[in-house]
Amino acid sequence: MKPRVTVITLGVDHLETALQFYRDGLGLPTEGIIGEEFEHGAVAFFDLQPGLKLAIWNRKDIAHEAKVALAQPGATEFTLGHNVNSKAEVDQVMVQAEAAGATITDPAHDTFWGGYSGHFQDPDGHLWEVVWNPQWDTIE
């Protein structure tokens, strides 16, 4: 398998609420909810960097499509890392996320490894890390 991730899909309980959080609160570009005419098909895609999209899809529809039992969500199953270019940008994104309805679980702070980061959960409990790593090249 070649490492080629093109879509990260988050299971959500309320598609409209998640859409408002990511589109209106965080400002991610999207065409909105599509596929509502199909049973289990309503989904929204957000453009991230070139070649990568974020999708939100109802958890019960993911379970139906993948033919797995609908399970309780767990915040620590994975995190989404949003890397930025400065400490100030970490602070800015954290403020934006909180204003959009995120729960700040770990306020932005200097890290033991020399960076700066904070964590928040979206309305469905998905965990995001906003991080500045001084060892990485500038993020465009």
Describe, in short, the structure shown.
Helices cover 24% and strands 34% of the residues. The chain has helices at 15-25, 59-66, 87-100, and strands at 7-12, 30-34, 43-47, 53-58, 79-84, 103-110, 116-121, 127-132.
What does this protein look like?
The chain is built from three helices and eight strands. The chain has 140 residues and is of the alpha/beta class. The chain has two domains: 7-66, 2,3-Dihydroxybiphenyl 1,2-Dioxygenase, domain 1, CATH 3.10.180.10; 79-132, Roll (2,3-Dihydroxybiphenyl 1,2-Dioxygenase, domain 1), CATH 3.10.180.10. It is globular, with a radius of gyration of 16 Å. The model has no long low-confidence stretch (mean pLDDT 94).
CATH C-level name of the largest domain: Alpha Beta
Q: What is the N-to-C order of secondary-structure elements (H for helix, E for strand)?
A: EHEEEHEHEEE
Enumerate the strands of the largest sheet in spatial order, edge to edge or round the barrel. 1-4-3-2
Average pLDDT works out at: 94
Low-confidence stretches: none
Name the CATH superfamily classification of the largest domain.
2,3-Dihydroxybiphenyl 1,2-Dioxygenase, domain 1
Radius of gyration: 16 Å
What is the makeup of the main sheet? 4 strands, mixed
Query: Given the C-alpha coordinates, what overall shape results?
Result: globular
Strand content: 25-35%
